Amino acid sequence: MSTALPLLTPKPVLAGKDYKEVLRREMDAGKIPLSLGKNCPVQCAFCYELDHSYRETADPPKTTDEDWKYILDYISRKPTDPLQFWCLGGNEYMEWTDLFLHPKAMEWVEDFLKYTDKSIQFFTVGFVHVPKIHQLVAQYPGRINFELSAITMGRYRERLMPHAPSVKHLMKVLDGPAVSSANFYAFDEHTMADDAVAISQVNQRCVLWMGCLTPVKGIKPDTAALMRQGRAHLAGETQRIYDAALPNLQTIHTEAPITAFLNRHRVISLFDSLELEKKDTVVVARSVHKILTMYRKNRAKYLMVPNATLGGDSDCTVLLTFNDIADALTGQKVVHVPKCIMQSGRGQYMDIAGVTLEDFMRKTGVRVRVLGGTAC
Ligand code: SF4
């Protein structure tokens, strides 16, 4: 009879700490931790933060002028790396939101550029002030990387992001020097391709960052169905974009199994460089598992681990958790685990949930050999 494995839960690191601890942790990881003091009011149907229960987060109060002084001072003391872009958003310990909804965000971005010599990047669905954002980009060339999450500008916009800025506003944001890249996705025929043409008409310099969205846990069934429908139209939309011969730099991200297949040479050469033996068990997500069983059959044992923590259709080795691995074990004494799984924003030798390698080994009794490198 099998014994149920203990659930691997991360040790809380924020419990009982002042909210400034959260701010410091974010800043030590290169983030500019503004807070709205509430959940994201935009409530996009596709938001990957709808279920963030896999990681510990805190909810600092709305950032005040005093907090901002503390943040600016703390960041100013950090050495400047000319290649680093400090990130406004994408937090690890705070839930994601569109930080430009903070009434002082534009003013503080200007402070950051004026009082530090550092660069900044941000993601927003477009709540920036026009023309201020264009003025700042012109005034501080090369120091702002503005990634506009346009998502979709056609018939599905209202359904997916009813509280986001209007397309008219987005076009004003795009019409000028501010936006470095715009990301948007395939949902149906004439979605991604039409958006690419529309954006290119007003801005030929921004990178068009395209693809399809992957449903994860927490996404409602009808939204997940729309995301999957987009996958089926990705190739057709891509052909239309190719035929349109747009001058913008473009990148189109495919779904995981195709990405793994396109990267197969890298996956295989990395695998070969590890010089594993036939009896060794290697942990991989579904799409990499397929590549290895196709091209390196029986060269090792491949433990296919579903991305159960993130759920939905996720299929990515980097985003596996120790809990996912524990659930997939079938009596192994030793497993080989890619290091990329334990290089998350939580810290070294921790997965995206904050569970440590040490905890995994102690609670499962399984020894781990850490493999360097990743391919998918
Ligand atoms: S604005 Fe961003 S964080 Fe907010 S709901 Fe939309 S995708 Fe999520």
Describe the 3D structure.
With 376 residues, this protein is α/β, with parallel strands linked by helices. It has 2 domains: 19-254, pyruvate-formate lyase- activating enzyme (Alpha-Beta Horseshoe); 259-371, Rossmann fold. Helix content is 35%, strand content 14%. It has 13 helices and 12 strands. It has helices spanning 19-28, 65-76, 105-115, 132-139, 157-160, 167-174, 192-202, 221-244, 256-262, 264-274, 286-295, 322-328, 357-364, and strands at residues 85-88, 119-124, 144-151, 181-185, 207-211, 250-253, 281-284, 301-304, 334-338, 343-344, 347-348, 367-371. The structure holds iron/sulfur cluster (SF4).
Please provide a brief summary of the model.
By secondary structure, the protein is an alpha/beta fold. Helices cover 35% and strands 14% of the residues. Iron/sulfur cluster (SF4) binds at residues 40, 42-44, 47, 49, 96-98, 125.
Q: Could you outline the blueprint of secondary structure elements for this entry?
A:
Blueprint: H1 19-28, H2 65-76, E1 85-88, H3 105-115, E2 119-124, H4 132-139, E3 144-151, H5 157-160, H6 167-174, E4 181-185, H7 192-202, E5 207-211, H8 221-244, E6 250-253, H9 256-262, H10 264-274, E7 281-284, H11 286-295, E8 301-304, H12 322-328, E9 334-338, E10 343-344, E11 347-348, H13 357-364, E12 367-371
Parallel strand pairs: 1-2, 2-3, 3-4, 4-5, 5-6, 7-8, 9-12
Antiparallel strand pairs: 10-11
Helix pairs in contact: 7-8, 9-11, 10-11
The site of iron/sulfur cluster has 10 residues, from loops.
